[in-house]
Amino acid sequence: MKILLKQSEDHNYAGSILRVLQASPNVKREYHDELKNTQWLRLSNGDAIAPTSILIYPTYLQDYERYLIQLRKGYHLASDLPKTNYQPVSSLFTKTTEEETLLEILDQEPSIEKLEIIVKIISENISNNQSSHSSVLSFSNISRLQSTTWLLTNDTENVFVKPSQVIYLSELETEIQNIIDNTSNKDWITPLQLRNEIRDNQIVLRWLNNRLFIKNDEALEVIGSMLSKFPEYYLGEFSRNEFSLKDALAVFNGIDDKILPAWNLIEQTSRIYGKEKCSRYILNSLLAQAIQESKLIDLLGWLSNRYEATDTQAITIYNQYLALAVNRENFSTSILPHILLLNRLGQWKSPRELCVNTPNIAEQYILDEKQEEIIQGYLDEVSRIDAQKAIDDQKGIQAQENTITLQDYFQDWHSHVYSEAIGAFVCLIIGDSQELRLFTKTLLRNMDIDLLTKNLLGSVVPRSFPISESRGETQEVKSLISDISFHADKRTGKTNNIFANNLDRYTNSLVLAHLNPSEYNREELSNLLKESVRLLIQSVYQVSNLNESLDKVWGSLIKSKQLDIAVTRNVILDSASSIIKFLSVHNQHEGIKQTISDLNESIYKREEYQTYNKDYQNIEDEIRSLKQKLGNILEDNSPENTAPSIVLQAVRDKIRQFGYKLTNIPFEIFQNADDALVELEMMAQGHSLLPDRFKFIIEIEGNTITMMHWGRPINCFVHPDYPLHDYRENGFGQDLEKMLSFNYSDKRNDDHNLTGKFGLGFKSVHLICKEPLVFSDRIAFRIVGGLLPSRLGNGNIAIQTRQDRLRDGLEQKLQQQNQNIFDGTAISLKIDPSLNISPDYTVQEFERLVGISPIQG
Questions:
Q1: Which terminus of the chain faces fewer neighbouring Cβ atoms within 10 Å, N or C?
Q2: pTM of the prediction?
Q3: Count of other CB atoms within 10 angstroms of residue 131
């Protein structure tokens, strides 16, 4: 053997070497290395090679040996040798391992052979139950297998992919495949797309699913990332917190795939893997992304077609998508005309048949409050554009026309509501119109128009508006779609404001609803105007920081006539020193005496300071304080204070000096009532008064006499039905001063229809009563010490003080006796018990001469 192997062309002796080895196996062991590495074998083509250059592959790969040997340069297969028995030297051939073969094949370009060989290796190892940590299927080799392109799809183009491109979620496989098909995705596949060679080999496929393919959370994340690249799957610009998956799953159940293509996947993912994972991996990828306009329209249409307004979950989601829609640039033209919205009755309606919250329009035509809030930005822009158009078209509107419209509109209101409330409304829309300012000033009586406007609007300047009145059973209103109007039925029943058009900061005209004031009581009409004022303040002028004060301002309107009492009180206190001296009581009470002395001293000091041009503000304050102190002394009816009684007695004495006695009282009040009726007729501009005004009632209840009439109320200088005619010059605004001051009467000698001296005649009531109570329209007061008026209650029924009850009692008496008129006058006289006289004695002479019978309470 040694001689054969040393020959220069030992391959010529291959046959001899094989025969030696067959005859003597021990020789192979002795010359093993030399036999293995010496080129003594001859290939079929005549080339000499060493036995170590012959590769032996695993038996199950024999069908692929010819392919595999091409990958090993310088190596040959046993089949390349001439046909003979090489069994004795087969141990000298090089045996390739499965791992070597696998790694070698993984380095090659993708091919059918590569696929089949890898599948064979995996299959053989799995079938032989080899450990996953074996040399072939070790962790490192699995990683190589996963990241190398070798799998083949069933595509006709023979597309090869990596196992790491295969998404394996068995229960979602169909949904994922549909998504891949719909998106023509080239980056990811499902096992359904693999060639039959793989899918039919269930053992290998199962191993691939578990070890190489993307699965579980990683697969969900991949799906989410994949979907995020395709706008047709987006769900809208929501944050995760804004979008409730729980509600959406309930609402979108059964939705068409064409509207939300990803929804079946979301539903199944939530069911199989839970809502939390679905939100984290799938939902988050589809949120914060703009949903396609066509799908948004279809989605809103599907929701409105499927759900009623009572389904709060569905409506919440609808409104969320509506909020997205309104932010689209072409919302008004491409979206709004093609969707439905809710009205106030919870019905789905076309935007062409809906308007915003237009007062006095039936609720079936008015947009739902929440949806109005959602599209408010769009509505504001439409209003702004319409307002600009109106400004350009209406520059010639005459303020005089507005004045006439308002006068006609409120003509029938004056008998049912306080004129000051109407004035408060009008003062907000006068602009720079002098006609409207004059009208407002008359309505407000003695109130300052500028102060009231400032209290309501702050520094905002009132605007002017074209004003019209809406009549008929329908009203033309603008729909939600720009430039489209429709006729809507008016709301039936009572309303809560007087507008027939919607108000916002761009409002350029006012349409007043046609109302019948007789259908409302006084409080309802007052609230109607109050809420109309609130709408103007909030919606048109956009003033919000004064809202809380409106109730206070409105309360002051209702009580405005009570200011007359305070004014009269101050007038009397200004001359109180002279009156008290006139009554000769200034030295009969120490408190009065000292206060008058201090007052005179302060007045003298003020004059002195004025003479020398020195600041005398502090002295003015002191004089004011002393006058109030004198008033408090006269008002204090405590047992230890004798001042009211002393002054009252002096007043009684003075009245008697003029020849008045207690039986004159009914005559004097009757004369005053008759004068008030004549004056009211004069103010009525020649029109007849209501028959109910021609009443004079005396009611006796216990030891109290109450006399009532419905002529001109105290201090009333404007007829409620003719507010533009002011009779202040006739002294009609100074009744209180006449009633309470001495020697005050402005009745002229030519006033032939007036039967008495109004001032002194009334004072006769002090002959029988310590503190007469008077209620006239809204003026309510008591007279203390025969001289000073004191407000009777504050009008707040909730605070049922004694004086409140007295005031309410007088108002109720007037209403009981004359339910159709609200501005009657009642004078209540409680007989002074120290006089020891009866009410009957006081009125019996009047009863006999006039021929009426007092009402017994």
A1: C
A2: 0.60
A3: 10
